[in-house]
Amino acid sequence: MKRKYLLSIIFTFWIINMQAQTVADSLANFIAANKNRASIYFTKNDTVLAHQNENVMMPLASTVKILVAIEFAKQAANKVINENDFVALSELNRYYLPNTDGNAHPNWIVYEKSRKHIVKDSIALINVARGMIMFSSNANTEFLMEILGLDNVKNNIQLIGLQNHSPIYPLVASLFMYQNPKGKSENSILKGIKKLSAEEYCRFIYDMHKALAYDTVLKLKFRPQDLTMKMQKAWSDRLPASTTKDYVHICRILNNRQFFDSGTYKILSDVLETLMENTSNKQWLKHAGAKGGSTAWVLTKAIYATTKIGDKIEMAYFFNDLTQEENSKLQKWMNEFELAILSKPNFREKMKTIIK
């Protein structure tokens, strides 16, 4: 009886493991089968294990927020800002546009209230930064860009040594570009936007970002209904873009703990490495961090980890021009895929044959 029970447990664990492997295989196979829409760069201990389109620039969506987190950590470590200072929620709400973020910002506020981090309608800057990463709050990101300085955030592209990265700009403010208050045809609006150079496009967005900081009427004029799928696709296509190779380069800097000072890495751990707040992850990981992003067509992720046996793993994988069904499937597969990459040597070896 005991033997049968033991065999049953073993069989159950085998089934669970096989299902996880199948899900991980599904995502890897999708990358391999969609070479025009997928990019990946994956390294272990500075050795490239898989790569595909690693130098092709793709929209980053919220994965770009890693660079804002880096600037936040640098300034906090050097006492330019105090991460424990409190900011009023009303200041953050200046940059919140309802119905444009999948309820990320409201969900973050509910989370912080449950942890009693909100005091007299104010919250510490460190939690604002964590909310930017954990919940991907665009409002928090926009606020941090303002207090940190947009130029300082953008300067990290050169500081870190990124080879292919388009200009960084505030995501909330960029939505105002795609408004149609005068009832013009969408095609005429999009044709006009397309003619704008990158510099002209960003200048408009920077101006809107500044206006949001003090103009209380501007938000009231925003029309979510103008963001049709056609408008959203054009917006998605012009989001800040980079390559999986560059974002693995960032991950390596975060993983190796050698580029910045120890104070900066301490703040970065608090902001980017919330994975380590899971007790089970602490059992086999020394540290690990990640940030993803998505639109209706885009799905991106950058992740790094150092295991307790000393393996250092970095990976970025991006998708663009996805269908709604593909996007939904891939998001369901991501967790098992990343877990297999980080914890299963046999799957890492398999990736060499899947991604050629």
Give a topology summary:
Elements: H1 2-33, E1 38-44, E2 47-52, E3 58-59, H2 65-77, E4 86-88, H3 89-93, H4 104-114, E5 122-124, H5 125-134, H6 138-148, H7 150-160, H8 171-174, H9 186-195, H10 198-212, H11 229-237, E6 241-242, H12 244-256, H13 262-272, H14 279-282, E7 285-294, E8 299-307, E9 312-319, H15 324-343, H16 345-354
Antiparallel strand pairs: 1-2, 1-9, 3-6, 4-5, 7-8, 8-9
Helix pairs in contact: 1-15, 2-6, 2-7, 2-13, 5-6, 5-13
Quick overview of this protein structure:
The chain has 356 residues and is α+β, with helices and mostly antiparallel strands. The chain is 53% helix and 14% strand. The protein is built from 16 helices and 9 strands.
Task: Indicate the proportion of strand residues.
Answer: 5-15%
Number of strands: 9
Mean pLDDT: 92
**Biggest sheet: strands, sense, closure?**
5 strands, antiparallel
Fraction of residues in helix: 40-55%
Walk me through what this model shows:
About 5% of the residues have low confidence. Helix 5 crosses helix 6. The strands form 3 sheets. The chain has a 5-stranded antiparallel sheet, sandwiched between helices. Among the domains are: 139 residues, no CATH class; 71 residues, no CATH class. It is globular, with a radius of gyration of 21 Å. It has 356 residues and is of the alpha+beta class. A hairpin with a 4-residue loop joins strand 7 and strand 8. The protein has 16 helices and 9 strands.
